[in-house]
């Protein structure tokens, strides 16, 4: 069975195109940078929830703030090496300030095989970054979303 995720990819055009991405939290990602960032997203069941509704819910859960009230466009569905499908929506986040986040948490056994449970943030920071840096920072399966956004931005009037 295919696992589905949905996420919101905010972009802004000035001074140069940038996107808002989030560094994954928890001990596995703590000392990693390249390939350790993600579009704010999460899993959903397409039989019981729409992808855009799920993307909004996950943005709130991961970052602790409401997504901006902008027009959202479906950028595409991208596949990870595990087979998970990620539906990505884009919106102009020019007026969105990347601050005052209250990151959602998850629990896991830590240290491994210790029998103890620890709580960690789902993401530990989120920031605006240019498209080239985002392409390097994102997990491999989400990098094509940056290419799709760059292509879509090239089609805007005045580009």
TrEMBL record:
PROSITE patterns: NUDIX. Residues 1-151 form the Nudix hydrolase domain. GO terms for molecular function: bis(5'-nucleosyl)-tetraphosphatase (asymmetrical) activity. The keyword Nuclease does not apply. This is Putative NUDIX family NTP pyrophosphohydrolase. Coiled coil: none annotated. The keyword Hydrolase applies. GO terms for biological process: AMP biosynthetic process; ATP biosynthetic process. Keywords: Hydrolase. InterPro entries: NUDIX_hydrolase-like_dom_sf (IPR015797), NUDIX_hydrolase_dom (IPR000086), Nudix_hydrolase_domain (IPR051325). Gene3D superfamilies: Nucleoside Triphosphate Pyrophosphohydrolase (3.90.79.10).
